[in-house]
Amino acid sequence: MSSLSTGDSGQHNVVRETVFYRLDKLVWEMRQAKSGLEMKLQKTFFSSTPSACTGKELVNWLRVKLLTPSETEALHLANALCRLGFIVPVNERQHTVKLDSSCYRIQRPALWPSRKWDSTSQEYAVYLLKKLEKGRSLEHYEQAALTKLEQVHTSVWANLKVAAKDSLSKYSRGCKVDRDIEDSQDRCFWKVQRPPPSHKPHPRNDIFSRNSVCMEVINLSRKREIIEKKIKFLNVYLDKAKSHSEFAGEKAITILMNHCVNYAQHDPIITKQEMTNPWIAIDEYFYEDLIDLEDKGHTKLELESWRLGFRELLSDPYGKQLFATFLNQEYSLENLHFWDACDDLKRSPQSKIQDKIEKIKRDHLQSSSKYEVNLDRLVLQQTLEEMKTPSRYCMDKAQQHIYTLMKTDCYPRFLKSDLYKSLLAEFIDKRR
Q: Using the 8-state DSSP alphabet, how is residue 367 labeled?
């Protein structure tokens, strides 16, 4: 195995940590009781294997977990897990995952390569000595390795034997099934760490290369995480959209219902009017020629309609006149004059546009104007800039600003004023 330079070694370590992080997370999910891979008794014609799964079950679980339809990719990943030691084949002669009834187990976390990548020679010596204490024979390469280790660790060899006996005493306390599973896991771990000569050397460098199968693990895991994040985002978005649409629908229905309730008594089709229709009833009141608007009076219903909105008030000539009286008392009549002038500008012929703009500027926009309005500095600058190209709509921003000011400030105070309240209190229906 070729040695790595310092830069290459650091790069491989980064890639290795990334791969192990993904694999560790994947195998940990595989161990979960509810969503993980089910370990059960696998029965065959000749024998039964406890706490194991078949190769086909392993590959199918990976396909579902990684959302990959390709069985080849899932099998590729399962083989990588087996080569690295995360998956333990029950048949020790088999070092790959097959899509048949071959049995496999998950390595215990303490021996995962992500947590114990490099093992010491003394640990290997303890494993071989413990194997001898169990009465099992060593392979030729294991016997040769034990002889060499005894020569290297002569000074601590007695301590290693004691450690092997202590480990064996703890091992013997478990039941037979647990001991068999632990044995197979230990053998698999050391075959990965100290492979026999007949096996290909563990591709520690190649397994983490950019083109290796383990990099495919990263891509598959990232693909799954990205899809899960998208699903989570879409679920949250749909919940918000659903709640927003329900809230917006309820709000719209509430506004519509309030509008219908408020305007119902002012709708001549739904509610009977206080005054009779002169075309279907004889009423001398409608034929008096010398009765002006104020003497003729308004009905109580018309006066109450001013509360429905600022537009309702301005659309009624008598209401507008009363509002002007109130503004005069409040020293803000110039706002209504400016709004009327802008409204008149929109209805003027093209030949009079320039003159009316100049008049509005003299009366309301100059600092020395008699009826100067209080415009925001930015709105005033925009209005003066638009006046350089005269049109019917160059005053729109200023007009909207003054309209909003009257609606939010003057109009609520008018409804609470003594002028309006006294009119409602002293109302007398002149109709007999």
A: T
- Write the secondary structure of 302-317 as one string of H (helix), E (strand) and C (coil): HHHHHHHCHHHHHHCH
3-state secondary structure of 89: strand
CA distance 398 to 365: 10
pLDDT of 178 above 70? yes
Structure tokens at 135: 């009465």
Contact 302, 309 (CB under 8 A): no
Dihedral, CA of residue 342, residue 343, residue 344 and residue 347, to nearest 10: 120
- Residue 84 has a CB neighbour count (10 Å cut-off) of 23
Q: Is residue 104 within 8 Å of residue 52, measured between CB atoms?
A: yes
Mean pLDDT is lowest, of 70-79, 134-143, 240-249, 310-319, for 240-249
CA dist., res. 286 & res. 167, Å (int)? 116
Percent of the chain with pLDDT over 90: 14
Q: Are 363 and 370 in contact (CB under 8 A)?
A: yes
Q: Are 160 and 126 in contact (CB under 8 A)?
A: yes
Mean pLDDT of the chain: 79
Find all residues with CB under 8 Å of 174, minimum gap 6, and list them.
Answer: 182
- Quick one: tokens of 205? 């460098």
> How much is the pLDDT for 90?
85
Gap between the Cα atoms of 311 and 303, Å rounded: 13
State how far Cα 94 lies from the chain centre.
Answer: 46
The radius of gyration of the chain from alpha carbons, rounded to an integer in Å, stands at: 46
* 0.85 surpassed by pTM: no
DSSP 96-150: S--SSS-EEEEPPGGG-TTT--S--HHHHHHHHHHHHHTTPPPPHHHHHHHHHHH
Which structure tokens are listed for 32? Answer: 């979960």
Please say whether the beta carbons of 386 and 292 come within 8 A: no
Q: Which residue has the tokens 């330079």?
A: 5
Nearest to 114 by CA among 187, 182, 13, 222: 13
Note the pLDDT tens digit of each residue in 194-250: 888 776 544 444 454 444 555 555 565 666 677 788 888 888 877 777 776 666 777
250-275 average pLDDT score: 72
Which residue reads 């110039």 in tokens?
334
Q: Which residue has the tokens 């192990």?
A: 20
